[in-house]
Specification:
single chain; six-stranded parallel beta sheet; 52% helix; 10 helices; alpha/beta; Rossmann fold
Length: 223
């Protein structure tokens, strides 16, 4: 079985700092602030998708240039936030123990699929004590759509989607899993919202025993 994890809000915390760093980077690098309607209108919640949505009036080449500038500014902002407070990006409760357990059990493989860019997500994970290079992974640097990112992560893990489960914290994660027709486990601060949206399996925190219990339920349902 392949367990594919989202990162922000799932494996690590610090989302408030993360969004602020992103919004500031976007405005400073592009000269265009992100408005609340931009988030509401966004069909795909990934860094690349947001850039292309907000800058849709620009030629594609210009969007690509600005995306590179925004990504660089975002990483610098994250590094500055981490320097000021090294507890900003920490693993969520139970995550370190769960990852260690899954790595030690031959029944499971792990991959990472995130809507952030590779450089910024690598930095945040490293700050939290997780090295992304240890896992097959795909990011918004590879694709704009979250479903495509998840699909690519499974390919890089050499496992079929039919053997995959995605763990995430946002309605956009649930949406992508429905598109891919794979099981979804919701976690983090939005579990009530995810349950209301129809998520069958949710865990506020990723403890080993409750996680394994849900895996058993998923396997029994598909048997």
């Amino acid at each position: 079985m392949l367990i594919i994890f989202d990162v922000d809000g799932t494996l690590i915390g610090g989302e408030a700092f993360d969004w602020r760093c992103f919004n500031d980077a976007f405005a400073s690098a592009s000269g265009i602030p992100i408005g609340p309607n931009d988030w509401m209108e966004l069909e795909e919640v990934t860094a690349r998708s947001l850039v292309h949505h907000v800058l849709s009036d620009h030629p594609l080449k210009r969007i690509q240039q600005l995306e590179t500038r925004i990504a660089r500014a975002f990483l610098k902002n994250l590094q500055a936030a981490d320097t000021q407070n090294q507890s900003v990006f920490q693993t969520t409760r139970g995550t370190s123990e769960l990852l260690e357990f899954l790595q030690s059990d031959s029944r499971f493989d792990i991959a990472i699929a995130t809507g952030d860019w590779i450089d910024s997500i690598s930095f945040k994970l490293e700050s939290a004590g997780i090295t992304i290079a240890h896992f097959p992974h795909a990011t918004a640097s590879d694709a704009r759509k979250r479903a495509d990112i998840i699909r690519l992560a499974a390919q890089r893990a050499n496992r079929p989607l039919s053997e995959s489960i995605y763990v995430g914290d946002g309605p956009w994660d649930l949406k992508a899993c429905r598109e891919l027709d794979i099981p979804f486990i919701g976690t983090g601060s939005r579990v009530a919202e995810l349950a209301q949206a129809g998520a069958q399996w949710t865990l506020p925190a990723l403890g080993i025993e409750p996680f394994l219990k849900i895996l058993d339920q998923i396997q029994n349902k598909s048997a």
